[in-house]
C-alpha cells in the first residue's frame, strides 16, 4: 500500500513538473493578406481580409527560450482587379509554423521561424484558370506578442512567402507571386506557470 502511495505521488510530481515545461493553447484572429512579387502590370492587387484559427503547443526551455509549433486554418489571398473584372482570389491553407520565441520577464516575446502551408481549398471566380494555387506554400514568419501569467495573450506576425503561389500558365497574370500575410490575433494557453 505504501509503494502505491509513493508511485502515485511520484507520478503526480512528474506531471506537475512536465506541466511547467509545456503549455498548449488555442488562438484565432484576423489576416490581412496580399500577393507580393510577380507581374501585376495589367491587374491591380489589393489586400484581402480573412481569418485564422487553431491550436499551439509551447515548449519552454528556461525563462527566456521557447519552441512553439502551431496548426492553423488560414484564409488568405488578394483582391484582383482588371479593366473588365474584379474578384477575390481566396485560398485556404492548413499552416504549420514552427517558431522559436524569446521571452522577457515582463511578458513580451519575439518569435520567428519557418511555416509550411497545405492548400485545402481555393475560391477564384476566374473561369480561365483551372488551378489557381500550388498545393503547398513555404513562408518565413516573424512576429512579437505579449503573454500574461493567466494565459491570455495577443500577437502580431508577418509571414513572408518564399515559394510561388500560382499554379497556372502565364496569361494576363504572372504566376510567380508569393503570399504576404499580416496576422493579428488573441490566444489562450493552459498549464500556465503561477
Give a structural overview.
- The structure is a single chain.
- The protein has 194 residues and is mainly beta.
- 10% of the residues lie in helices and 62% in strands.
- The protein is built from one helix and nine strands.
- It has one helix at 2-21, and strands at residues 22-37, 44-46, 48-61, 65-81, 86-103, 108-123, 136-147, 152-161, 177-190.
- Strands 1-3-4-5-6-7-8-9 form an eight-stranded antiparallel β-barrel.
- Strand 4 and strand 5 (86-103) form a beta hairpin.
- The relative contact order is 0.21.
- Residues 9-17 have low confidence and may be disordered.
Query: Taking strands numbered 1, 2, ... along the chain, how are they ordered across the largest sheet?
Result: 1-3-4-5-6-7-8-9
Q: Mean of residue pLDDT?
A: 84
Main structural class? mainly beta
Helix content: 10-25%
Number of discrete helical segments: 1
Q: Could you name the ranges where pLDDT drops below 50 across 5 or more consecutive residues?
A: 9-17
> Major sheet, described briefly?
8 strands, antiparallel, barrel
Helix-strand pattern, N to C? HEEEEEEEEE
Notable traits:
194 residues; mainly beta; eight-stranded antiparallel beta barrel; 1 helix; 10% helix; elongated
Quick rundown:
The protein has 194 residues and is mainly beta.
